[in-house]
Design goal:
Length: about 110
């Protein structure tokens, strides 16, 4: 039996609550920037007015897209504990030759 790599708590994916919290913060920050663009449209002129208008119009789309992106780090596969045994799979309907029968002898 090979050695099993010990699972680290830092390699586990974020909990759904933590991931939702981060996405909501990212959305709120983006929408806050949009509100600043709307307020600035009252005070600026020329090209700055166009930039603020584009920010006010386009930021909701980018806020939704950014909020729906999951996690920043790729989540590695979580290893199973050593005590969990898996059943061998049957290949094309044939029993596995190495799988023991009910009397303990291989087929």
């Amino acid at each position: 039996m090979g050695t099993m790599k010990q699972q680290s708590i830092t390699t586990l994916p974020l909990s759904p609550e933590e991931e939702r919290r981060r996405r909501m913060i990212r959305y709120a920050v983006t929408m806050g920037i949009r509100m600043v663009c709307i307020v600035l449209m009252l005070f600026v002129q020329g090209w700055w007015l166009l930039i603020c208008a584009l920010g006010a119009i386009l930021l909701p789309y980018f806020a939704v897209v950014a909020a729906n992106v999951h996690g920043g780090q790729p989540t590695p596969e979580v290893l199973r504990p050593g005590a969990v045994a898996t059943l061998p799979r049957l290949a094309a309907g044939r029993p596995d030759e190495n799988r023991p029968t009910s009397d303990g002898e291989p087929l």
